[in-house]
Amino acid sequence: MKKILYKTGIILNYFFAGLLVFSYLSVHIGPDKIPYLALFGLFFPFLVLINCLFLIFRIYKKKAHFFISLIALLLGFNHILDFYAFNNKEKEPPSENTLKIMSYNVRMFDLYKWANDKNAGNNIFEIIKQENPDIICLQEFYSNKKNNWQDKIIRAQKTKDYIISSKKGSSYSGNAIFSRYPVVNHGFVEMGSTKQKCIYADILKNKDTIRVYGIHLASIHLDGDDYEFIKNLKLENKDENIKGVKGIGSKMVLAYKIRAREVDAISPHIKKSPYKTIVCGDFNDTPVSYTYRRIKGNFKDSFIEAGFGIGNTYAGNIPVFRIDYIMHSPELSTFKYLRINKGYSDHYPIIAEITL
Prior knowledge:
Blueprint: H1 2-28, H2 38-42, H3 44-60, H4 67-75, H5 77-83, E1 85-86, E2 98-105, H6 107-110, H7 120-131, E3 135-143, H8 149-157, E4 161-168, E5 171-179, E6 183-190, E7 197-205, E8 208-216, H9 224-231, H10 238-271, E9 276-282, H11 290-296, E10 300-301, H12 302-306, E11 308-309, E12 324-328, E13 333-339, E14 350-355
Parallel strand pairs: 2-3, 8-9
Antiparallel strand pairs: 1-11, 2-14, 3-5, 4-5, 6-7, 7-8, 9-12, 10-12, 13-14
Helix pairs in contact: 1-3, 1-4, 3-4, 10-11
């Protein structure tokens, strides 16, 4: 019996080590080539944890097979560094020019009352007002005559300029950038076959011109039935489980493919930026993904520079993923990073203070 358990343990160890290696491949191989490979990247943190437990157990038991998980973990150590930040103290603010920038998916300021909190929209606005950033990048922005968040932000921030990706009549929606400093140029980047637009603004502070991109990539679009299935999963109902998992899996794979097309359209534009650049947005993807690698390139991730832990930004049903980012050119430097732990939207707002 002990031999069977021992061999089973080794097989499982190899199995989970192999899955971890597959998660590394998902960063480099687009979902259009091997669709379901992207899902391994999604489960990366859990695979790391399982392999760490195998490693600790085998070292404790003084078993020779500890190398299985050790090798798998070392192969992807750079991905672990993208996922987990190790900064243990706040950096001293520099004396030279700095910029405080916020990125926040405001979920239309809770227009349709998803939060079951009648004050959610006002609470979202109050966070923006209290933090008082120099530049605000909002995703899922919405403003109309009745709920004029646009004017409220302009008055609160003393905005010089702003840009919003879509206007219909008196309503504004989509991505938005508000700046306390003058916008000397702005534009839109078409995102492949999707209707969404990436926006950018060239912002002048003193003698520095900084290009800021506002991005919102495709979400999975799970519906009420999908969430109900996840919430009430019953192990004994195998047929329903298979049907539910397949349905969610196919939606996830489709979203991965769409995001891959979007970043393949955006990335060349970002690389050609004539100025030092900051990229903000809701990528709807984790740091172990094709999406993250394509946009990041040689940029710095503000969270990795000045954050700590896993820095999850998604406040929905599975609140363990970091999917919102502030990145910047390597010539810039983040000296402070903050995630505000207020769940008025399904995303937490993030703030980076950057040295120009």
